[in-house]
Amino acid sequence: MSRPKSKLQGPWIAKRKRTRAESLNPVQDHSCEYSHGRPSPQARMGGSQGDTRSSDDQKDEIPVENYVAQRYIENPYLIGGRKFDLRVYVLVMSYIPLRAWLYRDGFARFSNTRFTLNSIDDQYVHLTNVAVQKTSPDYHPKKGCKWMLQRFRQYLASKHGPEAVETLFSDMDNIFIRSLQSVQKVIISDKHCFELYGYDILIDQDLKPWLLEVNASPSLTASSQEDYELKTCLLEDTLHIVDMEARLTGREKRVGGFDLMWNDGPVSREEGAPDLSGMGNFVTNTHLGCVNDRKKQLRQLFHSLQGQKKTPN
């Protein structure tokens, strides 16, 4: 009898799960003691070949390793024959109730080498991280390996049409919200705290988005002038929403480059309370990869707020 074809075929990656403390303290990293998920001979001996302790004592001292198993996406969407992923920024001001903002700008990070599955160990083919790509022999520091999301969205629209692009970006919106909701009950909610997350999204050939990982306190190191401008504006707009000067009313749906996408429920682009009964004409208040006229919007916003303060009751 022939065996049914497995749905789990293809490469899988086992990545060691590290706590933030371990990331800051490399002395605690025991990953070198493991080979294919099993303790090395030295680790099985309790760290010393001359150790004469009982096997039960040695088992108790073997570090327990946690791994995250991820399926490798074999059919990534390619541009110029190169693999890429997207970095998107989400600002969470509260988990209970969930209140999340989506930044309009972001970037696509490209590998420096054309994609192939024939060299699965080649990091320059498969890893898009700038920290990896900038060590490539033919890396160009001024050009870098990034596209701004506006350019990426325009490219897709020219290739597949605006309707397909709207569907893709709507699916990405769903990833942002569902991932936050999945941890809503376990994250400590403090009204005095906020968190800026960096989402890494991979697009496959069918224009389906895949969540790679969510980075707390994402890197804000710039690799180009364009990247520098994006991240300085991102930080400035984050502080506008944190609003330590108490200038905002709390009813804003846009502040600079951020759009409020979830406020204990989906936020509509239309003014007023949204009609969620049928969700037929409902359009989420997200503009990822769209025009970011943040300077103009901030001028109008703060001018309006200043006028409201001057108006007598």
From TrEMBL:
The keyword Transport appears for this protein: no
A single BP term in Gene Ontology: flagellated sperm motility
Domain of life (superkingdom): Eukaryota
Span list, region Disordered: 1-61
Membrane-spanning ranges: none
Region forming the signal peptide: none
An MF annotation (GO) of this entry: ATP binding
A GO CC annotation given for this chain: ciliary basal body
Name of this chain's protein: Tubulin--tyrosine ligase-like protein 9
